Amino acid sequence: MEVISASKKLKTFQQDIVWRDVNSLKGQVHGKQNISEYFGWNTVFLYAVTVIFFGVLVFSLVNLQIVRGRKYSTLSELNRLEEHIIQPDRGIIYDRNGKKLAINIPSFNLMIDPQNVNPEILKEEFRIISEVTGVDQSELMDKFDKVVSDEPLTSRLILVQDISRDQVLEIHSNQNDLPGVWVDYSTKREYLGGDSFSHIIGYTGEASAEVVDAVDGVEMGDIVGMDGIEYWYDEKLRGKKGTKIIEIDASQKLIAEYVNSGTAPIPGDSLYLTIDYDAQVKLDELLKAGVAEYGATGGAAVLQDPYTGEIIASVSVPNYDNNLFIGGISQDDYDKFINDSGIPLFNRVTNAQMPPGSMFKTIVGSAALEYGTATPDTVYVSSGTIYLGGTLPFQEYQGHAYGSLNFVQGLARSSNIYFCQTMLALGIDNFIDYAEFYGVGSQTGIDIPGEQSGMLPSPENKIELAKNNPYLDPVWYEEGDACNSAIGQGITLATPMQVVGWSATISNGGKVIQPHYSYKWESVTTGVNSEKSYTMVEDNVLREGKLSDSTLYYIKEGMRNSVSGPYSIIVPLGQSKVEVAAKTGTAEFGVKDETGYYTKTHAWVMGFFPYDNPKYSFVIFLEGGGASNNAAEVALQYIDWLADNGYLEN
């Protein structure tokens, strides 16, 4: 009504002006018959345009305020505020010296809100998204349906990860046809260390419904650690989410967004690993060369500080490019991994449960010396072959006969017969006590997932194993099984991570140390601190007090004499620039040939150096790599490289 009233007043005002001007002019024209004769048609046209202009103006005001006013009022009411999650930057991962191994780089993710989509046009939305991103429409629909089925209340789902900037622009240009869909700026992982770090660091991925249910604070669409360090320390690396308020109109166009300091995301803590980048890369290089040279199917190697448990280098080969898993690995790439006979996704350092062979004699010897069933002067005769129970032949490796041997000589020569006799005198029950102290048959607690426990040789374990293995005799044979166990065969199994721990215990004075990859943390709020993964135990010592100085002395002497001296058999390490103590293992597996010998063997070597003041313990494992000295050749090259590059200084 106010607009109509104003229009009438305006029209009256216009008429008053016109007629007032006309009347004043009449007095000037006198003799003219009409106004047009005085003004002419141009003047009349000018007044007509003025009237039309004001008429259009009035009509527009009426249309805007009354006719279309209700429509815009309704649309304004459809504008809404939404709370959106802001994902934090994940913590950076460094080596011990500050070299970056895992960083964050910019990324754009295409998101959808299942709660704010129109089911009637969803198929058309997926068609557009498929055209823009190249992802098959059915794949998009399947992902959407699965998430909605698993998590019906979720309000954010990553439809496509890591789209390009050009695709972002195309999505924005189609925004009116994509209600409930938006582009989320984020970051993604990039791994800089190469494949030698893949089994340690692992990778990240989008949280599954199972992870969402199991982990507090994780929602669909969140990126979480899936393996390795990324998984083990996910909560600290992940950080704290923030929130922002966004205002969108009825056509889903962004009007504004608001973030305040109280709701900003907090980046994850950054982690420094115990790993030394150069030592890791070199070990990877040498191990790969050894696997290729000796025809092994794979390998593992670890370098450890025997006093702190810090893992300086840790390699499993074959390994893989963990960057392939960022944003979801393609089916083709995944199939290549699965079909690879080398099993590159398998971490042999912590998961390969293999017979350790003669390295196990150090544990048998430790138990026998402590119980007093053997002394440094105990002598057994190595005749090449003895017969257990009078009929079962038990041989030295390749039938060697070493003659009379005392304890140190028996260990240096790695005499099967010497340690068979030692085990029989000791008794399996007494042996188990010390085997468990060393950690045989139990996980080390290393801070990455998937670690296996190996197998402790015992009558109970053999009977249990036989329940699921029709080829395994469920009877424990007092002599045969005991002697097989003494030389690290039979049902005895160990992982390379366990084995390097045995060597560390011998070299550090008899302490079983917690191995770990975590070195220190850096927080955006508290800075750098020295929190370590082994804070779960006091002073990082798991067990101690079972091994006397005397026992350790003779075990170490046997290992040193195995490398250097008249009884040495580890020829390669005798040439090292550093004094090394070591014990090898040639672990037999597979089938026997016509002469009764196994056709395949694993090559092992463990040890520590320098001998007089140990700085490192180590293990090298070549799966199906032949004789143990093949592993010792790899160890020689690595130890000399460490010596040449300053790792033995200080």
Short description:
With 650 residues, this protein is α+β, with helices and mostly antiparallel strands. It folds into three domains: 2-77; 81-273, Penicillin-binding protein 2a (Domain 2) (Alpha-Beta Complex), CATH 3.90.1310.10; 279-324 and 346-644, Beta-lactamase. It starts with a helix and ends in a 6-residue tail after the last helix.
Task: Please tell me about this protein's structure.
The chain is elongated, with a radius of gyration of 40 Å. α1 runs antiparallel to α3 (41-67), α15 (361-371) packs across α17 and α16 (407-413) packs across α22. It folds into 3 domains: 2-77; 81-273, Penicillin-binding protein 2a (Domain 2) (Alpha-Beta Complex); 279-324 and 346-644, DD-peptidase/beta-lactamase superfamily (Beta-lactamase, 3-Layer(aba) Sandwich), CATH 3.40.710. It has 23 helices and 23 strands. The protein is α+β, with helices and mostly antiparallel strands and 650 residues long. The model is unreliable at 1-33 and 533-538 (pLDDT under 50).
CATH overall fold name of the largest domain: Beta-lactamase
First-to-last CA distance: 95 Å
Q: On the 0-100 scale, what is the average pLDDT?
A: 86
Counted beta strands: 23
Spatial extent as radius of gyration: 40 Å
Portion of residues within helices:
25-40%
The named CATH superfamily of the largest domain? DD-peptidase/beta-lactamase superfamily
Ranges where pLDDT stays below 50 over 5 or more residues in a row are 1-33, 533-538
**Main CATH class of the largest domain:** Alpha Beta
The profile of the biggest β sheet is: 7 strands, mixed
- Overall 3D geometry? elongated
**In DSSP terms, counting alpha (H) and pi (I) runs of 4 or more, how many helices?**
23
Q: What is the structural class?
A: alpha+beta
Judging by the overall fold, what is the CATH architecture of the largest domain? Answer: 3-Layer(aba) Sandwich
The tally of structural domains comes to 3
